[in-house]
């Protein structure tokens, strides 16, 4: 009778009843702005923190070479992992785990530590992947707002530490932060590392300031520190999906146990090695980016009410709220002029947030021109209404 009753109950279930409860409200992550860019290639892609400089000849040569071996499974990446370890002053490949972009790296890290009901602490605004991976595992994201003061977004480490509890399984910080583009104070990293809680430092944009700004040395002092990086930004290989983590050998080994076999393809792996060995090309791209960041900020600094945030990355965050304008209106205006920008949700009492990714020189000049035109036209309109 019991067996029959159980079968009857099972027959009444739908496939939705078998999903874990916490995944039911979740949806596939879709970057609408990237979809728009591919659907309308005539638009300028100044929204996704991509590198506008195309791959070098060395990179193309490597891609072509290993595309001829696409019928073969890749190895475990000992060559590129050894190179990454050497660059960062670590013992060897045992300190490095490779991923299909740093997004997969975060997936592996979170699956290694987070279960249902656990908490992950982040400072916001920040990269959305932390929340996505946490909620997929049934965890709860705990967000600490950065301090918006004197036209800056500042890390709030003291508030973060006060929220640490027995449920805290990961603390994650982007350094420099996405989207504010600034670094956290070195002393704050030591404070957080001292909790002993798995501490993930996202260094996706670190190369724009040089590895001297990295917190990689903390790995040698604190076993709980994990550094994540990607070749999508300064190296300009977003389409090849290559990321990695740096950690204590024991920690890296445990996290590596979660990876899907052959998660990084042959072409991506060997192309990454070529990029890591080409210091001249990286230096060229970094200098170009930093010069263009300075150009855009300089050209827009005199617009009343437009706040720009000094950036150590390949994007610049703006707040037009003090000038009385919505970021959404500026983004719409830019799209009509052929440029896709990125928005930010309403925060700190302002709906004027928008962000630009560094593009080609022509694109950056076009962006500066359209922002000036937007403010000139709308300020004139305001003045006419006052008269």
From TrEMBL:
CDD domains: AAT_like. SUPFAM superfamilies: PLP-dependent transferases. Keywords: Aminotransferase, Pyridoxal phosphate, Transferase. GO terms for molecular function: pyridoxal phosphate binding; transaminase activity. Its cofactor is pyridoxal 5'-phosphate. It comes from Candidatus Gottesmanbacteria bacterium RIFCSPHIGHO2_01_FULL_40_15. Residues 48-369 form the Aminotransferase class I/classII large domain. It comes from the Bacteria. Belongs to the class-II pyridoxal-phosphate-dependent aminotransferase family. InterPro entries: Aminotrans_II_pyridoxalP_BS (IPR001917), Aminotransferase_I/II_large (IPR004839), PyrdxlP-dep_Trfase (IPR015424), PyrdxlP-dep_Trfase_major (IPR015421), PyrdxlP-dep_Trfase_small (IPR015422). This is Aminotransferase class I/classII large domain-containing protein.
